[in-house]
């Protein structure tokens, strides 16, 4: 999971074992509690998935308020896609340098 604060450009990477809303919500909650919860949560996933994640977040943190509308901001989406490419390249290099296939460990270093 790639979480990017569009204001600061700070990026948080999390290893997910599934793409289930429950797991995504728990990882987002950890990120929100470590930093700060955003007012707007933008996702490139489908509406049903986003709604399920928001519903799960609401059960974990009832006071959390998020805008649930899907925003159309191509510049932000393009920036995230470029960032994902950079992350992938850095992970490959880290794995080669450390002679490992454990990419999930590399997330912490990348």
UniProtKB/TrEMBL annotation:
Protein name as it appears in the record: KRAB-A domain-containing protein 2
Gene Ontology biological-process annotations: DNA integration
SUPFAM superfamilies: Ribonuclease H-like (SSF53098)
Domain Integrase catalytic: 1-110
UniProt GO molecular function: nucleic acid binding
Organism listed in the record: Elysia marginata
InterPro entries reported in the protein's UniProt record: Integrase_cat-core, RNaseH-like_sf, RNaseH_sf
Source superkingdom: Eukaryota
């Amino acid at each position: 999971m790639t979480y990017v604060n569009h204001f600061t450009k700070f990026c948080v990477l999390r290893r997910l074992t599934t793409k289930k809303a429950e797991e995504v919500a728990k990882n987002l909650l950890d990120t929100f509690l470590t930093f700060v919860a955003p007012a707007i949560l933008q996702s490139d996933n489908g509406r049903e998935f986003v709604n399920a994640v928001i519903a799960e977040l609401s059960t974990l943190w009832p006071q959390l308020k998020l805008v649930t509308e899907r925003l159309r901001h191509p510049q932000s989406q393009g920036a995230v896609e470029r960032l994902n490419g950079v992350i992938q390249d850095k992970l490959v290099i880290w794995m080669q340098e450390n002679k490992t296939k454990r990419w999930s460990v590399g997330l912490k270093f990348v």
